[in-house]
């Protein structure tokens, strides 16, 4: 699928702090549809800029009645309606829709936690061809419930206790599930997400790792000028190795990898790592023996936090020295630093919604040794920053095929 089609089928998750939000993102991707997760309190502009086809409002630990409970921005409803964007609220997300569109949410007499049975009470795209009367087990986790629906909304499923379990307003393209379809305790949950995305919203599937790989190579080639040099610090772990292999595929030997032996490696780790890089991955790597440098600085230090800081600082100084060597050799300072940042690193570096801390749109990159210096001149290349770990493993298998 070409990058434009991927973008035009984007499913955007607005995160209200549920422990399952990443799982929703992951589940949607497993249906070959690209999805991104941003804070539920993001500005309207940051939502509009992404031009999502579908928006999912996640669950969260809040009450819609709390004064500081997180919500979508003003103008959101107008925006989605005038652009034909479909919206699905899950748990707290459903309650937000109900409350903000003129219905009422109250503390339920029947607070529901754990496995429950729900019954379809009205034929609806969310449940595909399942007819009225179809029962399924779902995972509930809510204290409040939709007590009055906004005008034009219909209940399409109820729990065994009679609480609202699913709602829709087809005309306005708003849908809601009080339960969590993304968890395996809702065995038919994936089917429901599938019906919603493909039958209700008409999303096209087709996002795949091969396209991601080709697109990343294209991006890196476009970004790094022909006389630019790039550094990558390799730990021997999956993330930096995959990132480096990809960048090497894109720019060849203008990538310079460094592996630092800090004297704290496992038995024969240095030999094993270097052999893997050279023999199996054909990745040129310089091994820096900094054992004395690290161990002399760590001598006598017992506080673990202090040790961590010293190690971080010494790593940075080893990378600096490596950069200077390259500058002497090529007559130009390296311009970029490759990092194996993953999507969870990116998401986790945003403050949780409702925490009172402001959401930052500049996502900080925190995947590095002991923190990068604030005045660092190197620009970052983070080719894996939109992928989850298991996606990186798929990506790696593909990359190995691609490189062999
Ligand atoms: N011995 C080392 N030599 C060079 N760089 C290193 C070394 N150890 C760690 N790094 C760098 O620091 C980053 C973060 O280190 P950390 O041990 O937290 O890795 P990680 O998050 O598990 O990722 P990875 O899978 O790449 O190891 C690594 O990705 C790598 O860029």
UniProtKB/TrEMBL annotation:
ATP binds at residues 235-241. Residues 207-404 form the GMPS ATP-PPase domain. GO terms for cellular component: cytosol. Keywords: ATP-binding, Glutamine amidotransferase, GMP biosynthesis, Ligase, Nucleotide-binding, Purine biosynthesis. CDD domains: GATase1_GMP_Synthase. It comes from the Eukaryota. One of its GO terms (molecular function) is ATP binding. Pfam families: GATase, tRNA_Me_trans. This is GMPS ATP-PPase domain-containing protein. It comes from Vitis rotundifolia.
